[in-house]
Structures are given as structure tokens and as C-alpha cells.
Amino acid sequence: MADDSYKTIKQVAEGYYTEKRSRFISYAIPVRTVEEVKEQLDKYRKQYYDARHVCWAYMLGPERLNFRANDDGEPSSTAGKPILGQINSNELTDILIVVIRYFGGIELGTSGLIVAYRTAAAEAIAAAEIDERTVDEDITVAFEYPYLNGIMRIVKEDNPAVVSQKFDMDCEMTLRIRKGDAERLKARLLKVESAYLKD
């Protein structure tokens, strides 16, 4: 996978696992911010208020550097870490996985818990539709009107998304392109007379 793309999930997916009468209900949820993570956790805690544990892990951002895991009262590293492990081994980001446990009366032991949370998380991911996205960069180019054709030819050839445009005596366009292609596009735009890039 290129360093200007990342994998996430398209919509909420659900998984399910039972072990010795303990039930594990798992959800993989697309999220973009820590605020969204908190909102989703509140929602699932309310929905499953009678569950023994609501354990979770999340990973945010294309660089996959923002992550947390929580055992919610299970023995240390038996729940959150295995959930996070599944996010990692599937190379996903912008995702929250919540695993709700209803205790069945029989202790599973630490290794049993790790397997159960890992499997429940894997089930939710398996049910999810994976989406590969690119890390994009916005480039704003300003130029004089007579050079519009030259700029438009480059736009047509390199095919960036046009975020905004204003055509007057002085023209301005904001283009969005995959990070890996941004330098080449900038170089081409700057070759057009009178064109300059704005921050």
C-alpha cells in the first residue's frame, strides 16, 4: 500500500461470538475524530447498559499514529489490546471497534478472553466493507485570465478534483489531488506563465 493511501471501513458492521455462554457482540464503526469516538462509545454504553463489559479500541488518521485501547474492567490487556491487534493486522484506520460482553457465568481465563475479544473484533471487520482512500493535498493556483487554457489543459490531463474556481481578470483555482501526485501537478502549474501557488 502506498504511503499516500489508507484503508478504512465504509459503514458500521457487526460481529458475534460466544464462548462458554459468554456472548460477545462486536461493532466496527467508521470514525474520524476522538469526539466521534466518544459519541459512539456513549451510544453503545447506553444501548448495552446491562452488559458486564464494553471494551474498545480505535485508530485514527492516515499515519495510524493516534490510537487507544480500553479493557473496561477485564484483566489488563485481555480485551482492548487484542481488539487493537485486529485493527493493526488488517491495516485499518479511522475505525472504532466496540466489543460488548455479556458474562455467561463461567470464567474464560486470560487466554480465553484474549481469543474471544480478538475473534469478536475479527468478525466485525470480516463483515465490514473495506474502503481504500487516498491522502489528498489541496493546491491553490492563481493566474491571469489569458492563461486559463493552459491551466485547464493541465487540469484535464492530471485530473485533480476541482474544489473551487473563480475566473475573473485574476483567476484562482483550488485543486485536490493524491499526495503522491501533488509535486508533479505543482511543477506543471508553475510552468504556466503568470501562475503562482498560494498557501
TrEMBL record:
Residues 20-125 form the Impact N-terminal domain. SUPFAM superfamilies: Ribosomal protein S5 domain 2-like. GO terms for cellular component: cytoplasm. Gene3D superfamilies: Impact, N-terminal domain. It comes from the Bacteria. InterPro entries: Impact, Impact_N, Impact_N_sf, Ribosomal_Su5_D2-typ_SF, UPF0029_Impact_CS. Belongs to the IMPACT family. This is YigZ family protein.
